[in-house]
Amino acid sequence: MAAAPLRLIARATSSRKASLATFAVSLGVLLLSAAWFTSTRQALADAFLQGSGAEQELTDSSQRLIETELRVRLAQSTQDVVERANTAGFVENRWGERLVNVSQAPMGREDVNNLMVSLTRDDTRIFGAEAFELSVTRPDEGLFDTADPRGPPLLLTMRGTMLFRTGETP
User: What is the pLDDT of residues 124-144, one digit of tens each?
Assistant: First the structure.
């Protein structure tokens, strides 16, 4: 059986015309194979490029999904806080706001005490401090010493927001 192809090749190459014809057919098959290989290689490269693009889109979509889920949870949490605030009487249009800003103001101990009492939280007011500092003016006195009311003042720095009720609780 292996001899049959060899006899066919030997017969085809016995004449010059047959040899040229065999060469031409072989060259044509080789050119077609090269063209097929080149197009297949290009198709493979395109497929890899499409695959990497799809993977990038999948990664981007997953990231956007996570961000969207976080935003939904934040919105739900915010809605819960608003509902609890409304239930507790913190209705937005029934509260006023004042900014408090005292910077290195010398005050007597009694005045500082009265100011602290006025900032105490209760049902009608809430103070949110951003900065607070209370210090003595002389190195020989203590902050918690009971001193003469006419003695040296304390230095007070305080910044924050005071919220106060402007209407009745529902």
Answer: 888 888 998 988 887 777 777
The first and second tokens of residue 146, run together, are: 């009971």
pLDDT digits (tens, 9 = 90+) for 89-98: 777 777 788 8
Structure tokens at 121: 């939280």
**Rounded to whole angstroms, how far apart are CA atoms 13 and 23?**
9
CB 162 within 8 A of CB 127: yes
C-alpha of 118 from chain center: 40
Is 165 in contact with 122 (CB distance < 8 Å)?
A: no
140 three-class SS: coil
DSSP 169: -
**DSSP class of 138:** S
Whether residue 110 contacts residue 149, with contact meaning beta carbons closer than 8 Å, is answered with yes
Taking the domains of the chain in order of start, what are their residue ranges? 18-88, 93-165
